[in-house]
Amino acid sequence: MAGFEPATFCSQSRHATKLRYIPYLVFLICLIIILKFMSLSQLKAKNKICKIKRFLLELEIKKKSELNEVILKLFQTYMAFAKRWKTNWELKSLTFDQLFNVIVEVVTKQLDEVEKSEVALGANLVIDYEADSVDVVAMLLYLEDMFKNASQTTRTVVPTDKLGQIVLVEDIFDIIYEVLVGIESKMDPFVAIKPDFDALEKRQKMGELYPKD
Hints:
Blueprint: H1 10-82, H2 96-110, H3 133-146, H4 169-185, H5 197-202
């Protein structure tokens, strides 16, 4: 009979239906694998980018640090050449050796472990003598006591605004030199300035609980 189609078993029909879904399942599995590999590659790429950024940041910090060191060295070199006493000694009351002896006494009073023979103008207070900001302030105060009667009109004041510029022993030397030259320039008549070593001896060392008798 025309148009007659033989009957098919139900099990065969179900089997054919499953076969039709296989390509879709394969496609989905492949898509999942591809997406997984893409996410992994993206994660690796992000990690590489983070590493590159970290490296550039560390490099920038290192360059800034090196630049700051260069600037500091240039500033110290400029300050060394800017010190007047190195080319022209203007202080009348004390010679270079006498003023240097004052600095030696001041340094060794505050820093017990430093011998007088070890004190040098070019020595670094922090690196060579392990001094801190408290020690530097103490040295300036000692100098004030030693020269408190240098001026007949006003009390001698050693400026502390230059504290951040004090790196070497010669920086302290330069500060008291400029103070004394300034005092001499205002004298009329001139009276020689003399350091008071007794005042330094009686002065309580900063950090000690009890002053000397």
